[in-house]
Write a structure and sequence with these properties.
By secondary structure, this protein is an alpha/beta fold. The protein is built from 14 helices and 16 strands. It folds into 2 domains: 302 residues, Aminopeptidase (3-Layer(aba) Sandwich), CATH 3.40.630.10; 136 residues, Glucose Oxidase, domain 1 (3-Layer(bba) Sandwich).
């Protein structure tokens, strides 16, 4: 079965157009609608459920790619920035006016095409906003509060290094009571570390990174069965290593202040399914529509959702195709993949079985980018996705190789919205251009840009706005997404059969304290491969 897909990818890849093709004309972003032409015909491959909504021309990966224009992408991103900057918060955090306006914008743009069944999926999630300060022996240290951390104010309090990685109660010594725990990141999620510290009666927890760079994260849920959370912040590896070294020869006193607000908020996923195509064999793709508190989130993940919206509108210009295509615009991704998990949890086994695959596009225009493809076959990072994920990875590799563009693998670690899908055996894949991870010298030679700094220096920051987009990467990657969408809309016959979903009891056991555990090693770099704050 794998060879069939490779042959299909090679044949289609030979038709690809270079991303710099100047002949590709712009189409109005707010346009769409019927362009006329032949409404008949059948493309072969999967069964075609003809509902009479096909448009003018025959779909091919090449033709769909040619419909993707940087002006349309730019216009969409500007709309998101305008929505954010029209509010006092100047962001698009879920449940805010700007995010609700984003949801309405996406819904209305898709609805007026007449090509999709469009819905808003209502849900309620807990919003949290925190601030913190951390100092040691009177010296201020850069820190970031963990989402869902409780408030606290520990002053002139002894700092104690926790044993091992702080993932079992035995790692927390009795003398930690009334003190601040210093904990290395890794092996288990932040929520468990904070809960175990709280259970040991620590008055605070400071988690230091295990890779270069600062650490911002989330405890993943408002509570944890392992114990009450200690007020928790993250610090960089550099600061943490220095504190560990100093604790070997001196006592350290710290001040740790956190203040958190909590509110239940109603919010929405936007879901659009083509009226044409086999509704029992759905090709799906998505990105998240919310931002963090710091800024408007134009790369994270405006780049992904506007790319998907442009593809969705471009697809309306083609006549019927064999497989239905479903677009997801997820809410509350930045608070722990809440929208996508809510959706998958809401599916019946029969509904779940109709989704043939899921493609994820989260941060596709990082200014200091490296083009990264999720490692579906596990050949680099030793975690293999569900059956079919390797073939999806190979399809994206084919696209970039035919474009003569370099690419590298990205860890397929379940730390973006595809996690809910792979957890139930649905194959997945996608493209990612990097977040707070540091670009290497080798990567700078491959992709250009600057070694030694982050792929996105404005990741989760106020500067993630219209000036924070690498348009060359964005266009190239959105066309790659279009290539994959068209390929699978035409046929999924080259994919192997899906893995059976895990037993219901196992799926329930994978959720602890409202947070789905990641069934992979916990000591990897979160480095976005997601659009959210890290949970581990």
């Amino acid at each position: 079965m794998k060879l069939q897909l490779l042959s299909l990818a090679a044949a289609l890849g030979a038709q690809l157009v270079a991303a710099e093709d100047p002949a590709i004309k712009s189409t109005p972003f707010l346009g769409g609608g019927d362009r006329g032409g032949d409404r008949g015909g059948h493309h072969g491959g999967d069964r075609d459920d003809d509902r009479g909504h096909g448009r003018g021309k025959k779909l091919t990966p090449e033709k769909l790619m040619r419909e993707i224009d940087i002006k349309d992408l730019r216009r969409g991103a500007q709309k998101l920035e305008d929505l954010a900057y029209a509010t006092p918060e100047r962001n698009r955090v879920f449940g805010t006016k700007a995010h609700n306006d984003t949801v309405d914008f996406l819904y209305n743009e898709l609805k007026k095409t007449g090509f999709y069944e469009v819905s808003k999926q209502e849900q309620v999630h807990l919003w949290s906003k925190s601030e913190s300060t951390f100092s040691v022996n009177g010296e201020e240290k850069e820190s970031a509060p963990m989402t869902y951390s409780p408030s606290g104010d520990a002053k002139d309090t002894e700092l104690v290094l926790v044993n091992n990685l702080g993932c079992t109660p035995e790692d927390y010594p009795p003398e930690l009571s009334g003190k601040i725990a210093l904990i290395l990141r890794g092996e288990c999620d932040f929520g468990l570390k904070a809960a175990l510290a709280g259970s040991a009666q620590a008055v605070g927890a400071v988690i230091y990174n295990n890779i270069a760079g600062s650490l911002s994260g989330t405890l993943g849920a408002p509570s944890n069965p392992a114990g009450p959370y200690a007020p928790t912040v993250g610090i960089s590896k550099e600061i943490g290593d220095d504190l560990v070294a100093r604790l070997g020869s001196e006592a350290l006193k710290a001040n740790l202040y956190t203040h958190s607000e909590f509110q239940n908020r109603t919010t929405f996923n936007v879901i659009a399914t083509s009226k044409v195509g086999n509704q029992d064999n759905i090709v799906s793709l998505g990105g998240h529509s919310d931002s963090v508190e710091a800024g408007p989130g134009i790369n994270d993940d405006g780049s992904g959702i506007i790319g998907n919206l442009v593809i969705a509108k471009a697809l309306t210009r083609f006549k019927k195709f064999p497989n239905a295509v479903r677009f997801f615009f997820w809410t509350a991704e930045e608070y722990g993949l809440l929208g996508s998990q809510f959706y998958v949890d809401s599916l019946t086994p029969e509904e779940r079985d109709k989704i043939r695959l899921y493609l994820n596009f989260d941060m596709t225009a990082s200014p200091n980018y490296a083009t990264q493809i999720y490692d579906g076959d596990g050949s680099t990072f030793n975690f293999t996705g569900p059956s079919g994920s390797a073939e999806i990875e190979k399809l994206f590799q084919t696209y970039f190789e035919k474009q003569n563009k370099p690419h590298i693998p990205s860890e397929f670690n379940g730390r973006s919205d595809y996690d809910a899908f792979i957890s139930v055996g649905i194959p997945a894949g996608g493209i990612f251009t990097g977040a707070e991870g540091i670009k290497t010298e080798e990567q700078a030679k491959l992709f250009g840009g600057t070694a030694g700094i982050a792929y996105d220096p404005n990741y989760h920051a106020v500067g993630d706005n219209m000036t924070n987009l690498n348009e060359e990467a964005w266009l190239q990657n959105t066309r790659g997404a279009a290539f994959a969408v068209a390929t699978y809309a035409l046929s999924t016959e080259g994919l192997p059969p899906k893995d059976p979903p895990p037993p219901e009891a196992e799926m329930k056991a994978a959720v602890v304290g409202g947070v789905r555990k990641v069934a992979k090693p916990f000591d990897r770099d979160c480095a976005h491969a997601c659009g959210r704050r890290c949970t581990i």
